[in-house]
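Retro notes, item 3 of 5
We never archived the inputs for the guanosine-5'-diphosphate complex last cycle. Fixing that now. Sequence and ligand:
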Amino acid sequence: MSSGPKYMRYLLFAAVGLAIVFFVSRSAIPIPENIRSKLNPTNYKDTVTSQPPSHNDAAPPNPPVKDIPAASSAPTAGRVNATFVTLARNSDVWDIAKSIRTVEDRFNRNYHYDWVFLNDKPFDKTFKKVTTSLASGNTHYGVIPTEHWSYPEWIDQEKAKKVREEMGQKKIIYGDSESYRHMCRYESGFFFRHPLMLNYEYYWRVEPSIELFCDISFDPFRFMKEKNKKYSFVLSLYEYFDTIPTLWDSAKKFMGNHPEHIAEGNAMDFLSDDGGKTYNKCHFWSNFEVGSLEWLRSKQYIDYFESLDRDGGFFYERWGDAPVHSIAAGVMLKKEEIHFFDEIAYYHIPFTHCPTTEQKRLDLKCHCNPEENFDWKGYSCTSRWFQVNGMEKPEGAENQS
Ligand SMILES: Nc1nc2c(ncn2[C@@H]2O[C@H](COP(=O)(O)OP(=O)(O)O)[C@@H](O)[C@H]2O)c(=O)[nH]1
Ligand SMILES: [Mg+2]
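Structure as it came back at the time:
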């Protein structure tokens, strides 16, 4: 009888057919394994408490490093213990999405460094979903402890409110904003102490709506570590004086009380034209920073922040974290520990850093308009940085002033 083998043949066809359907359905949408698992919401890391999390929560094992271009093999032989860090509100989601995309396209797609997001309120599902899908490394979401985003007990809140009203009437930028002041104080003294940040050595701060214009063909974190750099910048400028009338007095008081924290061979001449008597208002623009978390967590920096914080200018004036970080770096670091990253072409409204040297722009596939480069314009302090360090300005700088 032939019914037995025929039956077996049908079964075999059915099995092969099923196997083909299964294979096609698996491979039709080519989502890489690591992204697929990242899109599972249970894989977001949330840290809400102010307690340090376990090592796993704070810095989970790094994903495999893929696609590192051979040309950059020397500086990227291994990754550094570092993370991107972004302070943001839920409403910033689409603006930070742009920033993540530009950072990934120009750099992080080859490195997969982690990304820490911090907020004074819990991040919502959309924020987590969108940012996790765009970032190629692990993402972590932290809520800021209330004591880091509120008034210290020594602040007279009535006085602070009056200042906000007055500064609002004078149309000083963010002069009337209470949240902006908490933000500046947080970036000045606390982000590096958030539990999610504790296991990292270096950070790269990224704000919403920034743009990178050139390929980054090396690992800036690794550069910082290997060259023993503690702080870096791409843009520098003069601060709006009405936001910091007494900041320099407060910094001088700290220097007087803590001569042991002042570095020999520091960059005081970048900050002051008279050996420290007065502040010339030059500062590094802190919406971009790659820096050492260990330096910010050091006794010298914490002593500095606490001394400034006691003086109340975060609330009675509107001290920005940019001049606060810059004064710290200029006074407590050696000049050589601060680095200007010319190769990192960058935009944050309203200023652009675009490398002056044409060959550099071509080699790095830059898409910035060199005429928009702010470095050598009158309101930039980068010429002064070059002068203080005895560095020669690149050819063509004179045509961009
Ligand atoms: N969570 C949170 N983030 C804020 C708040 N205000 C500002 N930020 C973030 O702090 C950073 C600086 O704020 P931004 O509005 O860009 O200030 P600007 O660059 O000085 O104009 C950005 O990363 C913002 O997303 C706030 O009230 N809450
Ligand atoms: Mg900004």
